[in-house]
Write a structure and sequence with these properties.
Largest sheet of chain A: 2 strands, antiparallel
Mean pLDDT of chain A: 89
Mean pLDDT of chain B: 86
CATH superfamily of the largest domain in chain B: Periplasmic binding protein-like II
Number of strands of chain B: 12
Strand content of chain A: under 5%
Radius of gyration of chain B: 24 Å
Number of helices of chain A: 14
Largest sheet of chain B: 5 strands, mixed
Structural class of chain A: mainly alpha
Number of domains of chain A: 2
Strand order of the largest sheet of chain A: 1-2
Oligomer: heterodimer
């Protein structure tokens, strides 16, 4: 009877339901996080593990390759923010409006890339951007009389390739976020604006964008982290974590290289924590500026 | 009661799905992260792991058990399925020859980086490691770092074969304590590949090619070829690598230098040999004698295409590149000729062993002695080496076989008939001239710096050789 009482207790039930989440959260998030912090102060060797204090962090300060990785990740993040918020929003507004026919088709077109495997698409993009004269893009540029380029050997074109892969892949996803945001805006607002004689741009400026703000903040927050922690696209585009003059090296790419390829998990952990710190600082500043932490005004 | 049952079932289902979710997403990420590497190394013995050929091998694991069910049971891991197939054949032969010491082995093939990560983790943990495991050259410093706490020395087991084995190759798989931990598949001797068919069209004969001894001769012959074809755009005598250090290894071997400084030394990349090679290559680029290899080195799709398009007509590469010809460029059959590499000064060592797999026996093995005996039999005995040459196409380390006519001139072997001469004739010629560059703890750092920055700076961006090497030395010193 005791068991029955326990199972039907209103106090216990909620905890039972959240237990699976709490357990997996503790096991797969909190434990690795704590252990990463500890490991970042250690030199982890084959036979023994040694406590080295701040040595890993001091080395990071002097490590120019790591600085290159931070600069690359930062540039990439900024570019993706500039491209992956306004354009998906525009497409969402267009698809939501009466101007566009065959909405399902366009939505599917933009969303399908997100479903493909990065391994396959990365490989295809790598072959397209090949510096060899038969590479897809070199065929196009030669046809236009521009000659051939060593796409993945030069910083500017390399970054272009990366951002292109990213936009190709994520535009559809961000657009879906914005569409769902748009759906939640009350149509009565637009009707009353029409009665007041507002133009289309005015409606976008004074109704759509302010009411989409929560969605925009959400997309901005996840895009900042996604941009900083990008790894896969660069890994596939250069077929590994190495690229000429490190033009494709990202923070996580460097973490992978040091932690896994070179089996230096202590140093890798320090890199991971620096990434966490950078992403947290940027996002907290951004959220404060956006007023997310202010009490909701009613 | 029904309600209770239902709620229990639901909770269990929830927990299961929650955990299953974690598991599968984990697997997905490791898989895709690994496939690049796996692809790189399947085709196999490439030293610069940037290669991305043969995507087919990044598949799921293959597990097979072979041998005598009553014998000692062992585990063996590899990252190339063809290696495991080879060992499986050798298990049968071993059991037939040693009825009192039979074995049964379960072979598992994992993707490249998964296997090495698993191996390192299980060695660190002290449990879970296989009895026998392949270790790719690039990972040798990581795995051999554990010396005899992790690995079982092969010194005794290989004694019956050691006399015939090429010592410079065995040295590459020694630990910092000087003990032998790995058994090699191949020498990986660097040789010069020449497209004789195209050279002949330009009026250059096999005798002209044979007469090349030094890099100066090579230069002169190249100029003659380029003059003969009228120096059209896009045609070069050779291509130099920006994402591979093979040329540097050749230069170091010729002068008997080693930038790693050995197991206990300090790395120094500002060597005369390296400077000479890079200065020569920079000159080639400036004069239109050579191009930089498309995508970084010749062992890639673009590199194969470049060879097929006859944009380059000669290049130095390890012997195992022969299998790239048979696999990816079959239409080139009968066109290519193999010779020894040119040297800077007459009388120098003209070759160096590149790439490879140093298979180890772990201390966790159920019967270390038996595992070591089997491994050395499989990879060093005449039977084993013949199978390696016929099936895997590697230049074997057992030098006694090199001059054995039935082995080296066997026309049923595809590699013996693909080229204009017999590969082992070239090997015999350079037998005493194969140098070794060690792969030690600092090696991955040096390779990384050269393939990513230094070679690109010098050969693509025109940075002065001395300056680029100074920068490289600074970065490498930080890791010492």
């Amino acid at each position: 009877m005791k068991i029955k009482k326990f199972l039907y207790s209103q106090k216990v039930a909620p905890y039972v339901f959240v237990l699976p989440f709490i357990l997996s959260f503790l096991l797969f998030w909190i434990y690795p996080l704590c252990s990463t912090v500890v490991m970042s102060f250690q030199d982890i060797g084959p036979a023994m593990t040694e406590w080295v204090g701040f040595k890993n962090y001091q080395k990071l300060l002097k490590d120019t390759t790591f600085h290159t990785a931070i600069i690359n990740s930062f540039q990439y993040m900024v570019l993706t923010l500039v491209l992956l918020i306004p354009f998906p929003m525009l497409y969402a507004v267009l698809i939501d409006s009466r101007l566009v026919k065959a909405k399902g088709f366009w939505k599917a077109c933009l969303y399908v890339p997100a479903l493909t495997s990065v391994v396959i698409s990365g490989t295809l993009f790598r072959l397209m951007f090949s510096e060899y004269q038969t590479g897809q893009l070199n065929v196009i540029t030669s046809a236009l009389g521009l000659g051939t380029f060593k796409w993945l050997k030069v910083k500017a074109t390399g970054l272009f390739a990366l951002v292109l892969v990213c936009c190709w892949r994520w535009t559809g996803v961000n657009m879906l976020y914005f569409i769902s945001g748009l759906k939640s805006i009350d149509t009565a607002l637009y009707e009353s604006a029409d009665i007041d004689g507002a133009s289309a741009t005015q409606k976008l400026r004074y109704i759509t964008i302010p009411l989409l703000k929560p969605t925009i903040i959400y997309v901005l927050t996840i895009s900042i982290y996604a941009g900083l922690s990008m790894f896969m696209e660069s890994y596939m585009l250069w077929a590994g974590p190495d690229s000429p003059n490190n033009i494709g090296l990202t923070i996580v790419g460097y973490l992978y290289k040091r932690g896994i390829t070179k089996n230096d998990l202590g140093y890798g952990s320090a890199i991971g924590l620096v990434l966490l710190a950078i992403a947290l600082v940027i996002n907290i500043v951004q959220l404060i500026l956006n007023g997310t932490f202010k009490k909701e005004e009613r | 009661m029904k309600k209770k049952l239902l709620s229990t079932v639901l909770s269990v289902a929830m927990l299961a799905t929650a955990l299953a979710g974690c598991g599968s997403s984990d697997a997905a990420t490791t898989d895709s992260a690994a496939s690049g590497d796996a692809a790189a190394d399947t085709a196999a013995e490439a030293p610069a792991d940037t290669a991305a050929d043969a995507p087919a091998d990044a598949q799921a694991d293959a597990v097979t058990t072979v041998g005598d069910a009553n014998g000692t049971h062992m585990e063996c891991w590899s990252f190339v399925e063809a290696h495991n197939t080879f060992y499986a054949q050798m298990v049968e032969k071993w059991n037939a020859a040693n009825p009192d010491r039979t074995i049964e082995i379960t072979f598992t093939t994992y993707p490249y980086s998964d296997m090495h990560t698993k191996l390192l983790t299980s060695l660190t943990a002290g449990t879970g490691a296989p009895d026998i495991c392949d270790v790719e050259m690039g990972q040798v410093p990581n795995v051999y770092e554990g010396l005899d706490t992790w690995l079982y020395p092969l010194t005794d087991a290989m004694a019956p074969y050691a006399g015939d084995m090429l010592t410079s190759r065995l040295d590459a798989y020694k630990g910092a304590d000087g003990k032998q931990y790995g058994a090699p598949f191949h020498v990986g001797a660097t040789v010069m590949y020449w497209n004789m068919a195209v050279l002949e069209e330009a009026g250059i004969t096999q005798a002209d090619v044979d007469a090349v001894v030094t890099w100066d001769d090579y230069n002169a012959l190249g100029e003659k070829y380029l003059d003969a074809i009228g120096r059209p755009e896009g045609k070069y005598f050779t291509s130099v690598d920006t994402a591979g250090v093979d040329w540097m290894w050749i230069a170091m071997a010729e002068y008997g230098e080693d930038w790693t400084g050995g197991h206990n030394g300090t790395a120094n990349v500002e060597l005369d040999s390296v400077k000479k090679m890079l200065t020569m290559q920079q000159g080639w680029i400036n004069s239109g004698f050579a191009q930089t290899s498309p995508d970084g080195h010749v062992d890639l799709e673009a590199g194969f295409q470049n060879i097929l398009d006859h944009n380059i007509v000669s290049f130095p590469k390890a012997m195992w590149f022969m299998s790239r010809f048979t696999n990816y460029m079959p239409e080139e059959k009968g066109n290519w000729y193999i010779t020894k590499c040119p040297v800077f000064e007459e009388g120098q060592t003209c070759s160096v062993g590149i790439g490879g797999t140093g298979t180890v026996v772990t201390q966790q093995s159920v019967d270390k002695e038996l595992a070591a005996d089997f491994l050395c039999y499989a990879k060093m005995s005449a039977e084993g080496e013949t199978t390696i040459w016929n099936d895997l196409g590697f230049d074997v380390c057992n030098t006694a076989l090199w001059s054995d006519d039935a082995f080296a001139h066997d026309d049923s072997n595809q590699y013996n008939t693909f080229f204009r001469n017999y590969p082992y004739d070239v090997l015999n010629e350079i037998k005493d001239d194969i140098g070794t560059i060690l792969t030690v703890k600092i090696s991955p750092t040096i390779n990384e710096q050269f393939c990513n920055v230094t070679l690109n700076d010098i050969l693509e961006n025109g940075v002065d050789v001395e300056t680029a090497l100074q920068t490289a030395q600074g970065v490498i010193a930080l890791e010492q």
